Structure formats: structure tokens, C-alpha cells
């Protein structure tokens, strides 16, 4: 299945209408064009490169209510690629006030040129705009326990994975790596040594109970993406290569997320990721 075809699984009718009415300026038969896109999905990937989509997002403070998170992040990731490749370096957050230049823009933009990586990152970011939790009953040492788990909490998912037999841990390993990439990409300053000085703090359920650093999450992210890539489910879902690449290039993968968070959505992070 092509990347463009997979986009149609995530895009709503409102998303298609947003794309068409923004990109197409010399026609007004929008309903016809939206239906046409459903038969020619490869056009979607081309249209998403149009910078008018990004400009419209900037101009509309209520855009989060009008399009899906997946479309939002698909557009922002493309813009991040364009912006980063114009720069000589990325800025690595060391502390609240300290950033150091890292000359890795070429490698970072090359990674984002991979359509499968871009789609995975957009879907991963979109998944963190929703909270999923479940109450699990299990036995340990003859005692029955009931525990509520959140898929936004690293320690919750880590504990839940330990209750599952090894052959069935693929979704847990993938989610652990996603949490590590999300936190280090969208909330990197929270993981710095002077985190207490930040006013815009990470939502409590995203933090996990342990005081992990940015480097800790990088290590965990690489580990769990690598483990997830070895499962048959990864191959069946067409994710084996993407997960393996993210394991290898984890630090690079979080750079466009850092840029996106600091330059596009900094004021709206709490609203987006409640």
C-alpha cells in the first residue's frame, strides 16, 4: 500500500476539504475535487507540500478544532523539513537558558525526506492528543491486583509490558519508544537539569514516576524501537524498516520535533497534548 493511500485512512472529509480549499485557488468545485482525491491518493502527498497549508494554520487560532491532529502534524513536519534545511545547524537544548549548535541539519532533513518516517511521526504525535487508559486485573504471588494503566505514562506501559508474555510485547515496546521520542522531542526542556524553572510544565500523566533525563529517554527509545522492529507484527504492518531506522537515528528523529515544538506549537502544547 502506498504512503498516499495510507494517508486516506487517517484523513477525514473535513481534512480533504481543508486541503483542497487551501491549495486550489482557481476552481471552486471543491466537492468534486475531494472525491477525485479519493481515487487519486498520490496527489495528496504532493498537495501537502504546498506552503499555503502551513500559512493557513498559522492564521487560524482554532485550527485544532477544524482538522485532524494527523493532518496538522503532517503539514508541520513538512514545514520543519523545509525550515531546517535552510539552516546551518540545529539547537540542542542543554538547560533552560542554554542551547548549543549541532551541525546535523543535513542528516535531519534527509531523515524527514523518508515518507514512511514522516507518516509514522505524524501518526505518533497525533496519538498523544488522545488519552487511553485501562483497568487491568492480574495476579502476582497469589494476590489479585487491580491497576489502572495509561498509555501516556512510560512507567505504566513498562509495568504493563512485564505482565505480558514476551511474544506479545510488540505494541508495548513500540509505545515505550514512542513515549521516549515524544517527550524528548516535544518537551525536551522538561528533561533538562533545571526543569523546575519552567512554567510550561509537561502534563503530569506524561512524565512517568522516575526522574529520567533526555539521555535516558534517548537510550530507552533506541532500545525499544530496536526490539519492536524484530517482531512479526512490525513486518506485517510495514513498520519493521521504519522502527529499525528510528532506533538507529533516534537523536536525529527528535530534532525536527524539537524544532516543531519550539517554533510552531510552543504556546499550544498544553492544549494539544492534554
Q: How would you describe what is shown here?
A:
The protein is mostly helical. It has 2 domains: 1-67, no CATH class; 133-272, no CATH class. Helices cover 58% and strands 9% of the residues. It contains 16 helices and 4 strands. It has helices spanning 3-10, 13-23, 30-39, 42-47, 51-59, 69-84, 105-112, 115-127, 154-162, 170-186, 204-207, 214-229, 232-236, 240-248, 250-263, 269-272; strands spanning 90-93, 99-102, 133-140, 143-150. Strands 1-2 form a two-stranded antiparallel ribbon. The protein has a two-stranded antiparallel sheet with strand order 3-4. The radius of gyration is 20 Å and the shape is globular.
Estimated radius of gyration = 20 Å
Number of E-state strands: 4
Order of helices and strands: HHHHHHEEHHEEHHHHHHHH
Please state roughly what percent of the residues sit in beta strands, choosing from under 5%, 5-15%, 15-25%, 25-35%, 35-45% or over 45%.
Answer: 5-15%
Q: What is the distance, rounded to the nearest whole angstrom, between the alpha carbons of the first and last residues?
A: 33 Å
Low-confidence stretches: 196-200
What can be said about the biggest beta sheet? Answer: 2 strands, antiparallel
Instruction: Specify the number of helices.
Output: 16
Give the class from helix and strand content and strand pairing.
mainly alpha
Helicity range of the residues? 55-70%
Amino acid at each position: 500500500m502506498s504512503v498516499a493511500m495510507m494517508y486516506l485512512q487517517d484523513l477525514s472529509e473535513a481534512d480533504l476539504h481543508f486541503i483542497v480549499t487551501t491549495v486550489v485557488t482557481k476552481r471552486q468545485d471543491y466537492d468534486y475535487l475531494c472525491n477525485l482525491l479519493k481515487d487519486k491518493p498520490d496527489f495528496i502527498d504532493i498537495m501537502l507540500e504546498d506552503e499555503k497549508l502551513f500559512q493557513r494554520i498559522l492564521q487560524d487560532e482554532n485550527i485544532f478544532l477544524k482538522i485532524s491532529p494527523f493532518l496538522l502534524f503532517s503539514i508541520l513536519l513538512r514545514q520543519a523539513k523545509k525550515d531546517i534545511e535552510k539552516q546551518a545547524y540545529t539547537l540542542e537544548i542543554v538547560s533552560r537558558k542554554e542551547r548549543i549548535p549541532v551541525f546535523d541539519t543535513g542528516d535531519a532533513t534527509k531523515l524527514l525526506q523518508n515518507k514512511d518516517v514522516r507518516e509514522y511521526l505524524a501518526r505518533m504525535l497525533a496519538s498523544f492528543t488522545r488519552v487511553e487508559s485501562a483497568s487491568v486485573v492480574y495476579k502476582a504471588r497469589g494476590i489479585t491486583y487491580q491497576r489502572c494503566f495509561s498509555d501516556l505514562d512510560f512507567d505504566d506501559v513498562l509495568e504493563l509490558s512485564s505482565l505480558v508474555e514476551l511474544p506479545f510485547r510488540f505494541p508495548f515496546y513500540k509505545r515505550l519508544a514512542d513515549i521516549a521520542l515524544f517527550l524528548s522531542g516535544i518537551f525536551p526542556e522538561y528533561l533538562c537539569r533545571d526543569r523546575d524553572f519552567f512554567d510550561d510544565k509537561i502534563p503530569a500523566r506524561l512524565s512517568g514516576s522516575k526522574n529520567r533525563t533526555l539521555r535516558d529517554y534517548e537510550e530507552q527509545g533506541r532500545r525499544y524501537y530496536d526490539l519492536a522492529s524484530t517482531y512479526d507484527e512490525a513486518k506485517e504492518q510495514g513498520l519493521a524498516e521504519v522502527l529499525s531506522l528510528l532506533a538507529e537515528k533516534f537523536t536525529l528523529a527528535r530534532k525536527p520535533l524539537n524544532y516543531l515544538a519550539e517554533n510552531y506549537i510552543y504556546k499550544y502544547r498544553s492544549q494539544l497534548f492534554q
